[in-house]
Amino acid sequence: MQEAMIKRAKELLADGSVNRVIGWKRGEFVYDVTPAVFDSAEELDADFVYDDFTAANVSKYLIKETKKEGKILAFLKPCDTYSFNQLIKEHRIVRENVYVIGIPGGPKLDAEKIKAKGITGILGAKNDNGTLRIETLYGEETMPYYEAVSVKCESCKSKKHMVYDELMGEEGDILQSNRFDMVEKLENMTAQERYDFWREQLSKCIRCNACRNVCPACSCEKCIFDNPDSGFENKAAVDSFEENMFHIIRAFHVAGRCTDCGECSRVCPQNIPLHLLNRKFIKDINSLYGEYQAGEDTTSRAPLTNYTTDDCEPSIVHERGVE
Amino acid sequence: MLKISKSKLNELFDAVSAKQALYLPVDRNDGAAEYKKYESGMTMSSALNTVRSAKDFFFPQTENLVDFKMEGKNIEVIDVREESEDFVIFGVRACDARSFTILDKVFLAEPVDSYYKNRRDHGTVVTMACTRPAETCFCKTFGIDPTVPEGDAACFDDGENIFFLANNDKGQAFIDSIASLLEEGDAAKLCEVQEKARAIMEKLPLAKLSTENFGGDKLTEYFNSEKWADLSEACLGCGTCTFVCPTCQCYDIKDFNTGHGIKRFRCWDSCMYSDFTKMAHGNPRLTQLERFRQRFMHKLVYFPANNNGEFGCVGCGRCLSKCPISMNIVKVMKALEVK
Amino acid sequence: MQVNENKEFEPVIVAFCCNWCSYAGADLSGTNRLNYPTNVKIIRVPCSCRVNPMFILRAFQRGADGVIICGCHPGDCHYTSGNYYARRRITLLYSMLDYLGIERNRTRLEWVSAAEGAKFAETMQKFTADVKKLGPNRRLEDLRCRKQ
Question: How far is CA C127 from CA A149, B14, C3, C43, C58, in A?
Fold first, then answer.
């Protein structure tokens, strides 16, 4: 697939349909790929990579890229296309300046999960029929392939691209995923248990803002937490309140616009399961206001900028779930 | 050298923590390690390193500086500095231990930062030599030997025993305080373990990385390099690198209105942020390229120029694993290097 | 949180009241000499839709033990549809607070019209009593703001 993608990209560059390509660039190790813009065939040949570790969602970069001259070629996995559509809907990406090629999705692997097993000195990793064979400085190690899969790919919701100008590989389907299982599990805990769970998780937060800055829905030019004029400027969480505050507000600001791409959890250096906050909002919206998937199309109104006269009352919170 | 059997390590921890606070790396249930205050029963992590570096102990993420109380037109200034208690940080790796030397150059130079100094004076750093370096390690590039770490006292693991070595008076005092639990040991096996680790160091992917072409001499050349555009392209400006880095030391000072007084505190800041170093007109670095360049110029050029060739990096490799888009100082060095 | 003469815990309640309906309703309960607890601090907003989730968190941070939002009845919003948006927004926010383990009875939303002076007083009495039973807010508290 990587060779086919490079070949196609070179064709489109050569015939002038696009003047740059956004994809992933090889790193020092097998797993540290960086999103990058390629301007020439030589660069593509030298550094372009598409493999088990290209989990990064490149749609957010298109906000800046489509403001530039010329057309850019973007390779989008199915989950990336949802973010892309959502950004089109919000008028952040100029559609005419992107040529989208839909590429097969995951599952993608997460090097942190391999390292969490105590495997170190990682030099290479290959899937061998469900077993991941990892070449290390200390000899070969193995682990089940599915245990190295990125958190975001564990509950994949769709192998179907929502938008593309061209498709490489087979068209996939929307999947029945189990992505709300953990949310439900939390809802069925007592309030004290939930409080303890979230305190344990959110106290790890170092306010690095990786989650916010990687999120395609968090595309404000000036975040309220960075803006002294907003009255809510906050650089570090001094106590438990501020830890909670940042995450409640960030999840709320993207509610209804979050496509559940999972990047937030993938990038968190402290392994906080942030996707559980966003999925709670998605689950609530689905059950209270009708099934809604952000990024499925570019025209529907986001649930929070919409209403019906017979929406439920907030007192429903008191009636559902476990106290 | 004095040693203790690894099976008796918890006895040692119990003895130390009876007299002063003890912090050591502990495994979390999400697979990562973090420093925690020792409580009886905790097991020390065997992970290579923690996510948050040990700089937290001397330079915490948030720290109260001073409080103010207003009564009418009178402002009362309240000194909230607490006399710190003695504490021990156990299991610090060579890279983090070197970072203290770098932070000392910043905080203990005139005018001395009394908050940092207070913590530094009360803390005893007990390091742990590395035996299984990771592919992301490159401490050797900065003249650090992971098999012989700095710190007040150093520990060495030969698989069955932990050996102790004092590097200064503070370290000697620490070892004396637990001497009753230690016994003389044969360091033969330890030498083998160290040789093995050194052999692996030679084979590390980043073993050949060198700082010889960096430093203050080529400042203008590096500053004006065309490579910055490509390098900074994917940078999200999030600040993760600065917060996991053991040597990053920038901070902001903020006032918080509690409703019945003002708390002035300092918190970590990041040169990657758009509201960093705000002058009267705003942040002088308008684009991410300039901020990205600033961070690496500081670590590779400005800091060594001002500090006798000491680089602002210790090769711990945290930025290599934690950057959301996998940019890091190694990639910058390799792309930028002017021979 | 406060204490009364009996050293009992008295909750601090913040009520965001929309100017056109619920604030007028509060006024009406006053002119009718209907008592509602002094624990309630009213913040007048032009519409219930003006209430930003950050206001609710800020209220808890600054010492509130309970937050209630009052607005016009759905269909009667002075600005036509503000309270519809507020209804969705507040439902989702309260659900998130519940998800994080914050006690449900600390937050409420009530529709009170300008003619419902009695309802305003009753709502405030009931809410204050419910929050009093829960005790002081500890889970969403900012320790720095706690009065010594």
Answer: 48, 50, 18, 16, 19
Q: Is residue B209 part of a domain?
A: no
- Contact, A44 vs A9, CB < 8 A? yes
B122 and B98: one domain?
yes
The span from the CA of C120 to the CA of B252, in Å, is 46
**Could you list the mean pLDDT of each consecutive 10-residue stretch along chain B, which spans 339 residues?**
92 93 93 93 92 94 94 92 89 95 94 94 95 93 93 93 94 93 90 92 92 90 94 93 95 92 94 86 88 95 93 94 94 90
Residue contact A29–B135, C-beta within 8 A: yes
Q: What's the domain range around C35?
A: 2-145
Report residue C21 as tokens.
């309906």
Give the integer Cα–Cα distance in Å for B298 and B245: 13
- Structurally, chain B folds into a number of domains equal to 2
Chosen from B45, B50, B326, B329 to mutate, greatest number of chain A CBs within 10 A: B326
Backbone dihedral region for residue A126 (phi beyond 0: left; psi -120 to 50: alpha; all else: beta): beta
pLDDT above 70 (res A323): no
Band (pLDDT 50/70/90 cuts) for residue C1 is: low
Asked if B41 and B17 sit in the same domain, the reply is yes
Query: Same structural domain for residues B191 and B224?
Result: no
Residues B293 and B231 in one domain: yes
Q: Distance from B263 to chain C by nearest Cα, in Å?
A: 8
- Structural domain of B9: 2-203
How many domains is chain C built from?
1
Based on the fold, state whether residues B42 and B123 are members of the same structural domain. yes
Please determine, for residue C79, whether its predicted confidence score (pLDDT) is greater than 90: yes
Tokens of A278: 């966003």
CB contact under 8 A, A317 and C102: no
Q: Which of B47, B239, B275 sits opposite A208 (nearest CB)?
A: B239
Boundary residue ending a domain (B203, B232, B266): B203
* pLDDT score of A241 more than 80: yes
Confidence at residue A149, expressed as pLDDT on a 0 to 100 scale: 94
Residue B17 lies in a domain: yes
List all residues of chain B from 257 to 316 with a beta carbon under 8 Å from chain C.
258-260, 263
Please say which residue of B203, B233, B265 terminates a domain: B203
> Mean pLDDT across the stretch A267-288?
95
Of the candidates B135, B237, B274, the beta carbon closest to that of A123 is on B135
Compute the half-sphere exposure of residue B214: CA atoms within 13 Å on the CB side of its CA.
27
Residue B291 shares a structural domain with residue B192: no
pLDDT reading at C148 higher than 80: no
CATH of residue C102's domain is 3.40.50
Is A313 within 8 Å of C81 when comparing Cβ atoms? no
Half-sphere exposure of A84 (CA within 13 A, CB side): 28
